[in-house]
Specification:
The protein is mainly alpha-helical and 202 residues long. The protein has 10 helices and no strands. InterPro entries: MFS, MFS_dom, MFS_trans_sf, Sugar_transporter_CS.
Length: 202
């Protein structure tokens, strides 16, 4: 379970840095677009990812962490393929937003699965390994992205997520155990979420 959950986090955090190194190639491809427009290819993912983490985590507690993890990985993978197929900057930014939503859904669900799996004595160890996978992904993003762009094109920094995402979904369906938060079921406080600390502000 730890390996599967950590792999999901690896996917999400890898994409927070892998696209950076491909930005010059993306800029050359969309040579008629302004830098300000192209910058949203990088910013949209991170902003949406951060903005929806809390609400998505609460949904995972209510609807099931395994279910939301699989939904998140699925959305992330589909959005990655759409990013690779984008013909305009507007399309690419829109699909990066979808990627960010998918990442925001899968990351808190994956962490909750790890926390649920370990008892109090071993929980710090499990969370530490999960965090190490996320940190490793962020560090590997630029070299992997550079290698993919050099070997093929910028589209492969998105297409690389397709086989990884399929593997994650298949293994998660077979290997993860469903869990929910105990206590009364309540919907996320979306009104309060709008005013919580986030890149959007209040």
């Amino acid at each position: 379970m730890l390996l599967v959950a950590s792999f999901g986090a690896f996917l999400a955090f890898l994409d927070s840095t892998i696209v950076n190194i491909a930005f010059p190639a993306i800029q050359r491809y969309f040579h008629g677009s302004s830098i300000s427009s192209l910058s949203w290819v990088l910013n949209a993912y991170n902003i949406v990812f951060a903005a929806f983490l809390v609400a998505a985590g609460r949904l995972a507690d209510l609807l099931g962490r395994k279910r939301m993890f699989i939904y998140g990985v699925g959305l992330f993978t589909i959005a990655s393929v759409l990013c690779a197929a984008a013909d305009t900057v507007t399309q690419l930014v829109a699909f990066r937003v979808l990627q960010g939503v998918g990442a925001a859904v899968l990351v808190p669900a994956s962490l909750a699965l790890v926390v649920e799996r370990f008892d109090a004595a071993r929980r710090a160890h499990g969370v530490g390994l999960w965090g190490a996978a996320a940190a490793l992904a962020s560090g590997l993003g630029p070299p992997i992205g550079g290698a993919l762009v050099q070997a093929s094109s910028w589209r492969w920094v998105f297409l690389v997520n397709l086989p990884l995402g399929i593997i994650a979904v298949v293994v998660a369906r077979r290997g993860l155990v469903e869990s929910r938060a105990p206590g009364r079921r309540r919907v996320p406080d979306l009104r309060g979420r709008r005013c919580s600390p986030s890149p959007w502000g209040c």
